[in-house]
Design goal:
single chain, about 800 residues, alpha+beta, D-amino Acid Aminotransferase, Chain A, domain 1, OB fold (Dihydrolipoamide Acetyltransferase, E2P), eight-stranded antiparallel β-barrel, seven-stranded antiparallel β-sheet, 19 helices, about 30% strand, globular
């Protein structure tokens, strides 16, 4: 008996392979490091966690499923080894051992951190997962002695950038990672594959034979409630997703049969007569009957969809196109349960060489991040990502994901302001949007109109005028000169971002949405328990991040948004790191400097060469949305490089961190900061003080980008060393805790390449929610503590300021000359 046969002895003993569709397993070579989780609805629902080792799948039954929260230790009961062919099994196991429905919940590869065989023997297996759903560091720790009848282990998520207390993976992903089916669908359809097939490979595209409609009479099929996409900050990863252009037009189903075509909107309205040329073109398709899902758009000279041009479609000079992206039925056969890839293949064949206004919506498989980047470069609205193997499911769900390049949403017209210009009936339109059942004010739009629009809009609005505003809590400037409307008309509006109050910035009118009722106009991706600030979706906005102050996640995001201009002066376009506390400062916190799949799209990246010669994607923030994106993932601290992203090898500031020993008098620390200022001043270098929000003071020296990191680090170290040598009773230039007793450590290490320092106006993940705050040298004498300013009082301080405490910082022109370097060398 071979090694693998020996390992699979228990597996084979417990199964009758004449009955079960499970693979029997054959002896073979060790193949790799596959990882998978199968959701198993047996006597008790559980998740089977499997890692390939020694040519078999080592297996554990995780009763509650995996958790992304490091403090959650999930029971994992060791079970018999399974054959590697089991890696793709999905189906129904008949009555007997392990009876029940099995779904492939996650798959990928695992990477052991140490010798996996020794770790398994020792009962401490640490590894990294590269799954489609689970990623990052994990550990399996044995609780009971090896060899006991029930071998209990714990499955634990390690603290890293993939840890996420906001997401319950078991609740988030309820469908197969392979086929898009849920347990019920798998149970109803029975086993997916036949016995003898190597289940570890890619499953066949063909599934259960589609249902044949008994009435294949050539009559048009019935309307199907459309499948809708869920908005996300970025597209999903993986080769099992396809990506299409997000068109900016009207969603229409084409219902073909009996030589006739019906064009139906997403709400079931008949629009055949309105766009009869499109209906005529579809009628020429060589089919008895078909239900096609697609988007009607106006195409500009560059081939992009143009919603504002779609409004002028009746004028005769607008090129219309119907982009078909799905096929729901064909010649009486229902295709909705077929995988998307099969449906699109059939759709392409159905359209044939159709020309004119009927177009097939092309797609790209995988490479979602590259596709969205290219779409945005081309000034498209965004992309739609769809699960390749998923059936067509009506309503909004996770099978379709939309990612946008710019803000572009529907808003209700709630009023307008009259214009004093001749020929212009209104100056701007007032916009609203529903949050739940409450209509909220979203600002004014005054651009994007032409003469024809002025005329048609004013006629439509005249019939809807009313005396009272349909919105409560209006700002005073919104009420001034307003004519109010019953909220019935819906407009498509483009914009750059939203303010903390949800008001649009730089909006532009694109056209009316006659296919959408006003009551459906809700803040995108803002269902129960979410908020949107600066266009960024905030999950769990009421989660308390600072228990002592009651400051919530929403409050952090609003702070970043409200003071974005000040913060961005010191953060924008710099490589940075975050201290993330997803469950608040009292929970687990960790440092993140690299971009990963879970990073919000609002946080940008910069490629930086590492010490080993390779490159890595570092985080950077370019706008207010990026700051809010940091808040969304629990970013309570912003730590920045001393260089800008465009020239990371040329530092443009020096940071001296005066770090006192515990209990050191703050008055003496202020004296030390002023002494350092004077020493720098004697060398002709101007400096600026920053209260760190902890117990220290940073003295920051802006410089021109003329020096290398080695020169900046050498200067900082040399000056710190000279000060320590001149006054050893007060200063130390070494990080040793023992040597810092009762002294101030002049920390020069923040001037190394890749080192970071707290950014001005960044909150700190500390008690009382302090904020790192710039002060002037004159003001420093009145400061009582380095953590004097907090989220509770920083607004009041900033309102009182009559001038910038760091006035002149941006205009300082100084560098480390040879004379200055020699002075401390």
């Amino acid at each position: 008996m071979g090694k693998i046969d020996t390992l699979l002895k228990d597996y084979k003993k417990k199964r009758d392979f004449a009955v079960t569709p499970e693979p029997e397993g054959a002896a073979g070579q060790e193949r790799g490091q596959r990882y998978l989780i199968q959701k198993h609805d047996a006597t008790r629902l559980h998740f089977d966690f499997r890692l390939e080792l020694d040519g078999v799948l080592k297996s554990w039954a995780v009763t509650k499923g995996p958790s992304l929260t490091p403090s959650d230790k999930r029971l994992a009961v060791r079970t018999e080894d399974h054959p590697v062919e089991y890696a793709g099994f999905e189906g129904v196991i008949p009555k007997g051992y392990g009876a029940g429905t099995v779904m492939l919940w996650d798959k990928g590869e695992w990477e052991p951190k140490e010798d996996p065989k020794k770790g398994l023997e020792k009962g401490e297996l640490k590894f990294t997962l590269h799954g489609e759903r689970l990623k990052g560091g994990w550990a399996l720790i044995r609780m009971s002695d090896k060899g006991e009848k029930r071998e209990n282990w714990l499955l634990i998520k390690e603290k890293d950038e993939h840890a996420d207390e906001d997401t319950d993976p078991v609740e988030t992903w309820t469908e197969s990672v392979e086929t898009g089916r849920d347990l019920e669908a798998i149970s109803n359809e029975g086993e997916r594959y036949k016995k003898g097939k190597d289940y570890s490979g890619k499953p066949p595209a063909k599934r259960t034979p589609p249902r044949k409609d008994a009435k294949a009479t050539g009559k048009p099929p019935d309307f199907t409630e459309p499948q809708l996409a869920t908005l996300r900050d970025e597209p999903p990863e993986g080769a099992d997703w396809l990506h299409e252009v997000k068109y900016d037009g009207y969603r229409l189903q084409a219902l073909i049969g009996g030589g006739k075509v019906r064009l139906v909107t997403r709400n079931g309205k008949a629009w055949t007569d309105r766009y009869s040329p499109i209906a005529d073109a579809l009628a020429s398709l060589d089919v008895d009957s078909a239900a096609i899902d697609g988007e009607l758009v106006a195409v500009d000279e560059a081939g992009r969809s143009d919603f504002s041009a779609l409004q002028r479609a009746g004028e005769g000079d607008v090129a219309l196109a119907y982009f078909a992206f799905d096929l729901l039925s064909l010649n009486g056969t229902d295709l909705k349960k077929e995988p998307l890839k099969a449906r699109k293949t059939a759709l392409k064949a159905c359209l044939g060489k159709a020309d004119g206004p009927i177009r097939y919506s092309e797609h790209i498989e995988g490479q979602g991040d590259e596709v969205i980047a290219r779409a945005c470069d081309m000034h498209l609205e965004g992309i739609i990502s769809k699960k390749l193997d998923a059936p067509y499911r009506s309503g909004r769900g996770s099978g379709w994901i939309k990612s946008k390049c710019v803000g572009n949403d529907e808003f209700v017209l709630i009023g307008y302001r009259k214009s004093d210009k001749k020929g212009r009936p209104f100056a701007s339109l007032l916009l609203g949007e529903y949050e739940g059942e409450t209509l909220k004010y979203r600002g004014r739009v005054g651009t994007g109109f032409d003469e024809a629009l002025f005329d048609s809009l004013s006629k439509k609005m005249k019939r809807l005028e009313r005396k009272t505003p349909p919105v409560e809590d209006l700002p005073a400037d919104a009420k001034r000169g307003a004519v109010w409307l019953t909220p019935d008309l819906v407009a498509q509006i483009a914009y750059t971002e939203r303010t903390a109050d949800g008001v649009l910035r730089h909006p532009s009118f694109l056209g009316l949405r006659e296919d959408k009722p006003a009551k459906e106009v809700k803040m995108p991706a803002s269902g129960d328990g979410t908020a949107t600030i600066c266009g960024v979706r905030i999950t769990h906005p009421d989660r308390v991040m600072y228990p002592g102050q009651g400051a919530t996640k929403r409050a952090i995001a609003e702070y970043y948004a409200a003071h974005a201009d000040r913060i961005l002066e010191h953060v924008k376009d710099r490589p940075l790191s975050l201290i993330r506390c997803p469950s608040g400062r009292d929970g687990e916190c960790f440092f993140q400097k690299h971009h990963n799949a879970s990073t919000p799209h609002a946080l940008k990246t910069v490629e930086i060469r590492e010490k080993d010669g390779g490159k890595a994607s570092y985080l950077k923030i370019t706008d207010a949305a990026g700051l809010v994106g940091a808040a969304q993932i629990g970013g309570l601290e912003l730590h920045v490089w001393g260089a800008l992203a465009d020239k990371v090898e040329e530092p443009e500031r020096i940071v001296f961190d005066l770090d006192p020993d515990e209990g050191y008098d703050f008055g003496d620390l202020k004296t030390a900061a002023r002494e350092l200022r004077d020493v720098l001043g004697a060398m002709g270098l101007e400096s600026f003080p920053l209260l760190t929000g902890g117990k220290g003071i940073h003295v920051i020296v802006p410089i021109e980008r003329r020096n290398s990191w080695d020169e900046v680090k050498g200067f900082a170290k040399g000056l710190a060393t000279k000060l320590a040598e001149a006054d050893p009773d007060r200063y130390v230039a070494q990080a040793s805790k023992a040597k810092r007793k009762g002294k101030i450590f002049i920390d020069w290490l923040r001037n190394e390449r890749g080192a970071t320092a707290i950014a001005p106006y960044s909150p700190r993940a500390r008690e009382n929610a302090p904020v790192a705050t710039p002060v002037s040298w004159g003001e420093l004498s009145r400061i009582k503590a380095a953590n004097q300013f907090t989220l509770d009082n920083i607004d009041a301080r900033l309102k009182r300021l009559k001038s910038d405490p760091w006035e002149g910082y941006d205009t300082v022109r100084q560098s480390l000359t040879k004379a200055r370097l020699d002075a401390v060398g």
